[in-house]
Amino acid sequence: MVLEIVTSVVLLVMGIAVLVMIHVCIVGRTFRMSQESIESGTVVHSSCTISEEDIKKLPWYDYNEDDDDDEKKRTVECTVCLEGFKVGDKCRLLPNCSHSFHANCIDSWLIKTAACPICRACVDLGTKLLEGK
C-alpha cells in the first residue's frame, strides 16, 4: 500500500515537471520569436517619427460624396475614430499608402506614431509630397 502511494506521488511530480518544461519551452520560443520580429523590422520601430510641422504639410481635402477621385472615395470612414466621412469634413491623405482619415484624427495619431493605422507604413514626406508641388 505504501509503495503504491509513493509510486503515485513520484509519477505526479514527474508529470508536473514535464508540464513545466513544456510551458518553459513554449514561452521561451514565443519570446525569441517576438524578439526576432522586432529586430527584423516586421513591427513599426520608434524611429518612424514625424514632427507636428511636417504633419501639417501632409495633403488634405474637403470630403465630397460626389467626388470622382477613386482614391478619396475608396475609404468612407475614418479608421481612427470609426465615424463616416461627411460632406465638408477636412480629411488628410497619407502620401505613401493613400489612406484617408479625418485630419484631426490622423494628426493626433501621427504625433504618437508616424505610421498609417491601417497598413503600418511609415509616413514619408519625401517623393510623393514633392511631386504634388
From TrEMBL:
Recorded superkingdom: Eukaryota
The name this protein goes by in its record: Uncharacterized protein
